Amino acid sequence: MAFIGWVARILMVGAAALVGNYVGEFIREPRQEPDDVKMGLVRTSVNGSSVVGVRLSISNFIPAVVFAYFAGPPRTIAAFLCGALVSALVGNRFEPGS
Predict the structure, then answer these.
(1) Residue 55 lies in a domain
(2) Residue 65 burial (CB < 10 Å; 0-12/13-18/19+)?
(3) Is 98 part of a structural domain of the chain?
(4) How many Å apart are CA 95 and CA 73, to the nearest integer?
(5) Do 12 and 28 touch, CB atoms closer than 8 A?
(6) Cβ atoms within 10 A of the Cβ of 58, count?
(7) Residue 64 belongs to what H/E stretch?
């Protein structure tokens, strides 16, 4: 039971960091068209079919998760705030392949 709680906390912190990154991207560029959004669940592949998946910005996600564990409880709020702050200030500048 303790293992399930541990995994659930890790998933909650990861989800909060992703949502923070998503919010921070719209804070940085609020006038994006829906087709220009870099993060999203549904994308169109090269051959025209729809693909479902999350594009994870490692350069924004990792600092949010690390900060959340150093900040202490409530870690989900710290992950969200740090994810939004890093994504709004840094963007995808340090992302490989951008």
Answers:
(1) yes
(2) buried
(3) no
(4) 29
(5) no
(6) 10
(7) helix 58-71
Task: Count up the domains in the chain and report the number.
Answer: 1
Q: Answer yes or no: is 8 within a domain.
A: yes
Domain boundaries, position 68: 2-89
pLDDT along the chain (98 residues), means of 10: 92 92 83 58 72 72 90 93 90 68
Rounded to the nearest 5 degrees, what angle is found at the Cα of 91, between the Cα atoms of 85 and 96?
A: 130
Tally the residues of the chain.
98
Residue 36: per-residue pLDDT: 55
H or E element at residue 50: strand 50-52
pTM score of the predicted model: 0.75
pLDDT digits (tens, 9 = 90+) for 28-42: 877 665 555 555 666
Residue in this structure with the two tokens 């564990």, named with its chain if needed = 69
- Taking CA atoms, 72 is separated from 13, 14, 55, 82, 90, in Å, by 11, 15, 27, 13, 24
Q: Is residue 95 domain-resident?
A: no
